[in-house]
Write a structure and sequence with these properties.
The protein is an alpha+beta fold. It is built from 28 helices and 15 strands. The longest helix is centred in the middle third of the chain and has 38 residues. It is globular.
Amino acid sequence: MIATRRAFPWSIIALFFLVMSLTTVVLVGQDSQPAETSAEETTTENQPSGPAAYPPPVKLEDQEPVPLTQRVDNIFGWIVGKMQATLFYEVIPEKRQYAQESHVLYYVRPRGSKGPFVIAENSKLRKPADMPDEVSPTEAMAWAETGKVVGSANPDIPYRLGILQHTEADGEVESEDVQYLKYVINDSTKYVRIPGTKGEEATFRPVLKVRTALSTNPDDWKTPQQIREMAMAGELKLDFASNGDETPYLFTEYIGGVPLVVIWLSGGAVFFTFYFLFVNFWGVPHAINVVRGTYDDPAEPGEVTHFQALASALSATVGLGNIAGVTVAMTEGGPGAFFWMILCGFFGMTSKFIECTLGQMYREVKPDGTVQGGPMNYLVNAFDQFGLKPVGVIFSVIFAIMCVMASFGGGNMFQGNQAASQVLKMVPNSSAEQLSVVQTKLQEAAAADDLDSLPELMAERTRLQKEVDDFGTNFKVGFGLVMAVLVGLVIIGGIKRIGAAASKIVPTMCVMYMLACLYIIFTNFTQIPDLVSMIFTEAFNPHAVRGGILGVIVLGVRRAAFSNEAGVGSAAIAHSAAKTDEPVREGFVALLEPFIDTIVVCSMTALVILITGAWDNHTWVYEKGYQGVELTSEAFQSQISWFPWVLTLAVVLFAFSTIISWSYYGERAWERLFGARSVVLYKIIFIVAVFLGPIFTMNNVLDFSDFMILSMAFPNIMGCLLLAPTVKRAVNEYWRKYKAGEFKKFH
C-alpha cells in the first residue's frame, strides 16, 4: 500500500488567522489613539526657550561597585529584554507623551573626606529656601534613616560613590571623584499628556501607583503652562538631545498594546472552540464520568489512571497563580480583569482538549511500559504528514529546549523560593522582632534630630541585621535541602509515583484552600450579587485603568495563561501517560483542568479579594505596598485570624506538587533532546535546582522561566492547528461509539 501525503490545510490556516485577526480587533478595540502634540500647544509667545531657559542638571556618574550577583542578574535581564522585544512583541501599542518629575538635590564632598557634604553647584539653582547648603555626616545619617536620601548597599553609609563633572568657562570638562547624597524631594510622579477635545486645552494627569491608572481628580491635573513652569524651575527631567530645545521635558512612550503571545494563545483557544463546536460545554458531563473511573481498564497501555493524569497536570497549574495571580490581576486591572480570566479559562478548555488528545494519539509506549509523549512527538507528525518532517523536528527541539528551561526555573526554583519565603515569614525570630524595635527607634531619633543616639542604635541594628540574615540563610539552606530530598524521593520513582503523590496532594490542598474561601464567601453572602455585578461592569467599563478595556483584557488573558497553561502544551506530556486506548477520552479529561483551575479555584480567590476590598485597600496596597501572596494573606487574615498558617501550608503543598509535576515535563523534554540514558543527569540537575531555589533571588531568572513557559505556546499551537482535522475525525468517531454504547464500563 502506497502512503499518500495529505494536502496542506490552507483553509484551516486561513480560518485560524481570520479568527486571530478578529481576536486582535476585539482586544485592541478603539483604545489605541496616538497622543500627538506640537510645540505650539505647550509653549506661549515671549517665553524663553532652549537650554538656557532651564536649570542645568548635575552631571554625576554613579560609581557604586556592582556585586557579582547583580552582574549576573544584569546579563539575564538583557536576555529577558530581548525576549520581551521579540516573542512578546506588542501589537498596536498606545503612543503617549509625558513629563517626569525629578525634584532631586545632590550634596557632595571629595572622596575620602570626613567633612560635611556641600550642595552641588547646579543643584543650588533648584534648591528650596528651607534646604541647607551643607550637611554634616551625622545629619546625613539621620536623612538616610528617615528615607530622604538614596544610600549605598551598606545601611550604615548614606552616601554613594560617583564622578562629578564640571564645565569650566573655557568649555573644558573636569571630573572629580566624590561621595554624594541624593536627596529625593519627588522623582516618581509621571504626568501623562491627554489631548484636549472640542477646542479644550490639553491636560497633564499624574499616574497613580496602583494599576498605573491616571488620576481622575481634576485638582491633580496640570496645564501645559504649569508643566513648562515646573521644568523651568528644575522640577522635571530634561533631555535636550532627544526632545529638542522647545520641550526638553516632554518624553514619548508606547504602552498597552497586545503581546503577540496573548493573541496567539487567545486566538488559538477561540478558533479551537468554534472548530470543535464548543466541546468545552457539552463534553463536561462525559469528562466527569471518565475521571470517576467509569472506563478505567487496568489492561490498557499507560502508566497512570485518568484521575492520576488529571491530578498530575493540575498539580503543575493549580498553585501560586491561583493564590497570587488573581490578586495581581485585580490590583493592576480592577475587578473586570477577572471576567476576562474566566473567559480565557473557558476557551482554554478546548486548547487543553486538543493538545492532550494529540499527546495520546502520538505517544510512544516503550518496551518497559514507560511513555514518551507530548508536543515533542506530535509536532514532528504534524509536519511529516505534509512532507515537512525536518521542520517538525526543528519545532520539536525548540519546544523541548523551552520546556527544559521552564522546568528548572518557573516550575522549580521559583516555587521553592516562594515557599521558603512564606515559611520563613511565619517562623518566630527574636532577632527580627528586636530589629524591628531598633528600626523604629532609629527613625524616631532621626526625625527628632537626636544625633547623639544614632551611632549606638546603628551599631545595634548592624548586629541584629547580621543575626537575621544568618538565620534566614541557614533556614533557606535547610529548607532547600529538605525539599530537595523529598522531591528526589518522588521523581526518582517516575510518573507513577508522581501521579500517586499528586492524586493525594492536589485534592487535599484544593479542598483546604476552597473551604477557607467558602467560609468567607458564605459569611458575606449578601455582598455576592453586587460584587458579581461589579466584575461584569468593570470588565466592559473599567474605572481609571491604564489602557481602558484593552488593558483589562490583556491583564486577564495573561494571568489566565500563567494560571492554567492552556495552549502551552505542558499538560499533554502528563496526559499522554494515562492508561487508555482511546486518545479522545483523555482529551475530555484534560478539558476539566482550566475549569477547575481558573473558573472554580480562581473564582474563590477573586470573591474573597472583592469581599475584603483588598484589591483597592488604601492601607494595604497604597501605603504598605502589598501585592500577590502578601495581599491575599492580608485579605484572608482580616476574616480568619489564623489563616496565614493555612496559607503557608497551602503554599508549600502547591509548590511541592508543581515541582514534581514539572520534573516529569522537563524529563520527557530532556529525553527527546539527549536520549533516555541521560535522564539520570537531568534528575540530578533538577534536584540541585530544588536546593538552590530558596537561596537564589535573581528575579530575571524567574522572568526568563516564565517567558519560556508562555513561549512554548508558539510551536504547540501551530502543531495543534495542523492536526486539528485529524483530531476532529477522531472525536466524531469516538462520540459515535459513545452514543452507541460500545464502550465497556468497569465501575
